[in-house]
Amino acid sequence: MGKIFNTTGVCRPDRHYMVNIDKRLNEIEELIAQGAYFTINRARQFGKTTTIRLLRERLSDRYIVLSISFEGIEKEVYAGAVSFCRRICRLLYNRMSAQRGAEGIPEKLIAQMEQMCDGETNLADLSDFISALCAQTEKPVVLIIDEVDQASNQEIFLSFLGMLRNKYLNSDEEPAFQSVILAGVYDIKNLKLKIRTDTEHQYNSPWNIAADFTVDMSFSPEDIGGMLEEYEQDKHTGMNIDAMALLLYEYTSGYPYLVSRLCGIMDERVPREDGFDAKASAWTKAGLTEAVKILLTEPNTLFDDIVKKLADFPELKKMLCAVLFRGERIPYNVYHYAINMGCMFGFIKNHQGMVEVSNRIFETLLYNLFLSEELLDSKIYKAAALDKNQFIRNGQLDMELVLERFVESFTEIYGDAKEAFVEENGRRFFLLYLKPIINGVGNYYVEARTRDMRRTDVIVDYRGIQYVCELKIWHGQEYNRRGERQLIGYLDDYHLTKGYMVSFNFNQKKQVGVKKIELDGRLIVEAVV
Fold it and tell me: How far is CA 381 from CA 372, 435, 437, 479, in A?
């Protein structure tokens, strides 16, 4: 059986098409060689577990690597020190005994660890064993703990981290691990441990010794291209590897799961869709657009987690709505609660000092999610749904007619609305109107680099054809001319000769309707509401 694109577990180079992560592994190895204790905290399905597995294999010739995971540990284990230490000992014993004789661990220590699995072991006993282990092994010992998130709010786990911290601080006096690596979504470095049980106001971080982990684990266009080159050697699709790698990056910003999932869909599902009769036609811009449509409509664990996090953190949801619908420019501040949560979960990023949604896929997912919450009560959505069939002619979207009907419906429904209401909701109204028209066949996304309080560009992909539509608030004739020029430049980027514009104009003397403007050999269809 040949290789596949994998998104359902640990990736293995002999079974799966993978990005070469040697550079990242080299950077992590350097931290270990320096004796650093650190946390690999990245968003869900960002390749943490795969990285740990490959790292363990790399380190095995120079270090004794004890790699364990907290995945699936029962809540009862965290009830007290003895139950917790027993489980830690069991996990360590399984790793030690599985590699008996190959790692340079004295047999008597393995036997001692087996006894501790069922004894009245506490943190002090575990600390003493760690010292003995690190003193008697032939090579330095590295401890890796994956899936630490579910333990992060447990007091005994924080005490365990405090024990490891004390051993790190006293490593000149007693043996300690060469390096400790914790992997999860949450930044363990920010957790707090009560210093004394009788003083609730005094806290300290049990992991404030952690070195900063700045390794970029996202995929660059070059990374993606290397993976596609291996695929192309096997499949011979004739794709333009560099162009496809760049397109994948533009949609995903290198989020590992999204890259691999889109590739998997283009490999397995797109060739079976109407209009795509072979793998060669799937690995095109139209094929990627189809893959994006499929991805955004399928259930998966990553999207499920996003929905759950938004429900758990309403402040984060409120901030994302402000960025997406109102175009608010929010300064990036890691100490702001919602920003910190959004960054940790991988929803947002710091772009030139401002909050920005991490990638185009997440943006569209969030737009769809937020819009879906008001579809049943939206008059503008119902208006478009009633007439949606008239907008498709000869299998293609009549975007000019969409604008004409939008002006009519918007004027009828919201013509008397106050300016502030329209300014805040105008873009939402247009997307709600557009959604039932292209739903199931086309995609849309909002171009992040043009989105602000005054202007945004919506890119519509419908059956392989793109439509660029600028939405803006009217701020005078001169501003409007600049917007037209900006739209012309954007049409050049997409190699298009026709663009669209919707102006929300609050001038009493405005002329509501649709007009056409020729500028530099391009045609702009402008709707004024």
Answer: 10, 8, 9, 30
